[in-house]
Amino acid sequence: MSTRPAPQTGANTTAAFATVTTLFFAWGFITSLIDPLVAAVKGIFSLTDLQAQLSASAFFIAYGVMSFPAASLLSRRKSVPTVLIALVLMIAGCLIMLGAANAAVYSLVLLGLFVLASGITILQVAANPLAAVLGAPEKSHFRLTFSQAFNSLGTFLGPWIGATLFLKGVEVKEGTVITEAVRQTALGGIDRAFFWIAGLLVLLLLFFFTMRKLVAAAAPDSAAPKGFGAAISEALASRWAVLGGLGIFLYVGAEVAIGTQMALFLNSDAIWGQSDAAFGVPLLGLAMGSDGVPGVSLLEAGKAVSFYWGGAMVGRIIGSALLTRFPAARLMAVFAAVNVGIASYVLLVGGVGAGFAALSMGLFNSIMFPVIFTLTLERSTASQEATSGFLCFSIVGGAAIPPLTGLVSGATGSYATAFIVPAACYAALVVFALAAARAKVRSTGEPPASTIH
Question: What sections of the protein cross the membrane (predicted)?
Answer without folding.
Answer: 12-30, 50-71, 83-105, 111-134, 193-211, 240-266, 305-324, 331-350, 356-377, 389-409, 415-437
